[in-house]
Write a structure and sequence with these properties.
This protein is of the alpha+beta class and about 260 residues long. The protein is built from 9 helices and 11 strands. The strands form 3 sheets. Strands 5-6-7-8-9 form a 5-stranded antiparallel sheet. A 4-stranded antiparallel sheet has the order 10-1-2-11, with helices on one face. A two-stranded antiparallel ribbon has the order 3-4. The C terminus is likely disordered.
């Protein structure tokens, strides 16, 4: 009995000392563990890098992409007029996009009016996320478009494959909207390439508001794609604290209506 008592007195304290470590390792679903896991690997709902709104609308022969200009760090507005939408030109256009024909008129503001052919060229890209990561993805997308000219869907799929599988690209925190004359796609870091069924796409913290507003306005025949996008973005800017009303807009003519426009 004395030897058994000594054995128990030595074993019980050791088991008690190991119980907290065992219980913490066997309970991964606690609130503390979830909070720690959230902060170490941000998700798509994190406002720290997803605080913006980009919307794309296809309607009445036009493709319109619009985004806000707010750049924020936490609760501080860093810049109110950032440009989050870019137009990527194919190599076939060459340097003409940088030296537009002004027909004797001067001024950068008149370039769009005096060179209508350039506003219907290229691919429109909008991004929500970290600026450096977004531009890295834009460079990758431009390379894919050069590799597969005229094949936007394949270029987006190839970009998503690399984004998903590459160890470096997997850490990039951004979402992209890509549109050309034929189709519009949303590309995410999860490997998703999504095409809208109703002509409306959106990314960013205020995208749910903008998408809902745009879908409600799509049935109005008197509103153009730009009108729908502008009204949707205005509603999003009034509801999302990470979205302002300093909008940037890019548009294209859809391929189905280009022949009719040429005849006119």
């Amino acid at each position: 009995m004395n030897s058994l008592t000594r054995h128990l007195t030595r074993t019980v304290p050791i088991l008690r000392s190991q119980m907290p470590a065992l219980s913490s390792a066997a309970a991964p679903s606690t609130g503390t563990t979830l909070a720690h896991h959230y902060h170490t690997s941000p998700t798509a709902s994190s406002p720290d890098w997803h605080g913006t709104t980009i919307v794309c609308v296809r309607k009445n022969g036009r493709v319109c992409m619009m985004g806000d200009g707010m750049v924020s760090m936490g609760s501080v507005i860093v810049k109110p007029n950032a440009k989050k939408i870019r137009r990527i030109y194919p190599k076939t256009v060459g340097g003409e996009k940088f030296v537009p024909k002004t027909d004797g008129k001067s001024g950068d503001d008149d370039d769009d009016a005096t060179t209508p052919k350039h506003e219907n060229e290229g691919t429109i890209v909008g991004f929500a996320g970290t600026t450096a990561d977004a531009f890295t993805l834009l460079e990758r997308l431009e390379g894919k478009l050069d590799e597969y000219p005229g094949q936007l869907a394949r270029s987006c799929v190839e970009l998503a494959k690399g984004w998903r599988t590459d160890k470096y690209l997997r850490r990039l925190e951004a979402s992209l909207l890509v549109a050309d004359k034929k189709a519009s796609f949303e590309i995410t870091g999860n490997g998703d390439v999504l095409e809208s069924h109703d002509g409306v796409l959106g990314v960013g913290s205020g995208s749910s508001f903008a998408i809902a507003a745009a879908r409600a306005l799509m049935d109005n025949p008197d509103l153009s794609a730009e009108d729908v996008a502008r009204k949707a973005m205005q509603i999003a800017s009034e509801m999302c604290i990470y979205t302002n009303d300093n909008f940037t807009i890019e548009s294209l003519a859809m391929v189905e209506d280009t022949k009719d426009e040429d005849k006119d």
